[in-house]
Design a protein that fits this description.
- The complex is a heterodimer.
- By secondary structure, chain A is an alpha+beta fold.
- Chain A has helices spanning 22-28, 84-92, 101-114, 120-127, 138-148; strands spanning 2-7, 10-15, 47-50, 53-56, 69-71.
- A 5-stranded mixed β-sheet of chain A has the order 2-1-5-3-4, covered by helices on one side.
- In chain A, β3 (47-50) and β4 (53-56) form a beta hairpin.
- Chain A is globular, with a radius of gyration of 15 Å.
- Chain B is of the alpha+beta class.
- Helix content of chain B is 37%, strand content 23%.
- Chain B has helices at 14-22, 37-40, 74-79, 81-84, 90-98, 101-104, 109-115, 121-128, 145-150, 152-155, 222-228, 235-248, 259-282; strands spanning 7-9, 28-31, 47-50, 59-61, 65-69, 132-136, 140-144, 161-168, 175-181, 191-200, 203-212, 219-220.
- In chain B, α5 runs antiparallel to α8 (121-128) and α12 runs antiparallel to α13 (259-282).
- Chain B is globular and about 60 Å long.
- Chain B starts with 6 loop residues before the first strand and ends with a helix.
- The chains are: A alpha+beta, B alpha+beta.
- The A-B interface holds A 1, 17-21, 24, 39-41, 44, 47, 50, 53-56, 58-61, 63-64, 107, 125-126, 128-129 and B 1-8, 31, 34-35, 38-39, 41, 48, 50, 52, 75, 100-103, 105-106, 186.
Chain lengths: 152, 284
């Protein structure tokens, strides 16, 4: 089926199968910052923002994303002009293998966009949808706190 | 990819949705949040009816009850001001505990009830608050959450839909509490219990008690509730209550916990919930 997806502010005409998930379609279109993990909504590395809210793209049929704003990690900053969260994660050692990083950053962005001064507990809650085996969450939480406090 | 899926529909009227669900073929099922369905990718399903364009995502506060559309997301329930005041926030808190944020942003109240996980906190709170479901087939029927959980297939045949959940306000002065036993702070609980207590001075006027993790679906414990009426909840009475709880249930062993562990923890969780609800009701 032909669907019109709005990805990082850009409208894209896409041919997708009924049963294709948003994760599959996004990666097929080249948005490989959206990571492939568990395929069942338990690990969170596939997280994207749908109308500003963090969702698992692996359990969302692509066709349902039509008419909504999809934000991937590619859309929030570039290598030359990184988003403050990207800069903070990179500078603070919050990135180890990096596989969960796009999902963590998008989750943090969704939080800060509606709550610019969250408590540490609120930050942990916001990141709780993303599993990380490397960092123990300490430095990612610190990085978000840093950005929230305007330190980057 | 959900390979067996060949058809996607997003009807804008309930009538059209029900019509699609009635046809004998292709195998067609309703799609709410989809977090459970899409993860399973059931290969016998060929068509889905997206319910998101039916206007079923509403939250309406009435004087003595809350009307919740079946497509209301768990996150909307966790954060909506009208929901936060019901039963000291039991509904909002259990919505928040039921799933992690990315799931809550999609999972719906109706879908969560149909999946009917025994330890689902939001289902426990609907059960203890004696919520009622409005089901359309297209005839309109109301059924209590309790009756629905006891026999979901009978109350929700394939070509019918839950459209609304009505949650009555609990008695003024009654207080609710939730207790959970789980391996990690945000993991799915092995056992959970909720209690709703109203006091008359130093005795229980009425108590409601629900348990998750001891049966296929969440259950109420009317025999324990009856035994608690008129009692003063000191530690001795709570011990007796724990024993009554243990006797009233028939948990099964599975890979997460043995029946013996579930039985023991059911008593522990029930007592914690009762103790807390009792104490809070006494502060009024």
């Amino acid at each position: 089926m032909d669907i019109l997806l709005t990805i990082n502010g850009e409208e894209r005409q896409v041919t997708a199968q009924v049963g294709e998930t948003l994760l599959e379609v996004l990666r097929r279109l080249g948005y490989v910052g959206v990571k492939h993990g568990c395929e069942d909504g338990s690990c969170g590395v596939c997280a994207v923002l749908l109308d500003g809210q963090v969702v698992h793209s692996c359990i969302l049929l692509a066709v349902r994303a039509e008419g909504h704003d999809i934000t991937t990690i590619e859309g929030i900053g570039t290598y030359d002009h990184p988003h403050p969260l990207q800069a903070a994660f990179a500078a603070s050692g919050a990135v180890q293998c990096g596989y969960c990083t796009p999902a963590m950053i998008l989750s943090a962005k969704a939080l800060l966009d509606r709550n610019p001064h969250p408590t540490e507990s609120e930050i942990r809650e916001a990141l709780s949808g993303v599993l990380c085996r490397c960092t123990g969450y300490v430095k990612p939480v610190e990085a978000v706190l840093q950005v929230a406090e305007g330190g980057v | 990819m959900w390979s067996s899926l060949i058809e996607y529909q997003q009807p804008t009227t309930l009538g059209a949705a029900l019509k699609l669900l009635t046809r004998p073929s292709p195998r067609t099922i309703p799609l709410a949040g989809g977090v459970w369905l899409v993860a399973r990718r059931d290969s016998s399903i060929q068509a889905v009816v997206d319910l998101s364009a039916l206007g079923l995502d509403f939250i309406e506060a009435r004087k003595d009850r809350l009307r919740l559309g079946a497509m209301t997301t768990l996150q909307a329930l966790a954060t909506h001001p009208s929901v936060k005041y019901l039963a000291d926030g039991l509904l909002a808190e259990t919505a928040q505990r039921s799933a992690l944020l990315p799931i809550r942003n999609r999972a719906t109240l109706g879908g969560t009830l149909v999946v009917g996980e025994s330890t689902s906190e939001i289902v426990l709170s609907l059960l203890i608050l004696e919520a009622r479901l409005v089901i359309r087939s297209p005839q309109r029927r109301m059924v209590s959450v309790e009756a629905f959980l006891e026999n979901p297939k009978e109350h929700l045949p394939p070509s019918s839909l839950i459209v609304e959940i009505v949650v009555p306000h609990p008695e003024t002065g009654s207080r609710a509490a939730l207790a959970e036993v789980s391996r990690t702070p945000r993991g799915r609980p092995i056992i959970n219990a909720a209690a709703l207590v109203s006091r008359q001075g130093d005795v229980i006027r009425a108590a409601r008690l629900v348990l998750g993790g001891v049966a296929a679906r969440s259950i109420r414990l009317p025999s324990v509730e009856a035994a608690l009426r008129g009692q003063s909840l000191n530690e001795e009475k709570l011990s007796e209550a724990a024993a009554l709880v243990r006797d009233a249930i028939s948990p099964q062993s599975d890979e997460r916990a043995s029946a013996e562990y579930r039985r023991e923890m059911a008593g522990v969780a029930a007592v914690r919930a009762l103790r807390q609800a009792w104490a809070q009701a006494g502060r009024e």
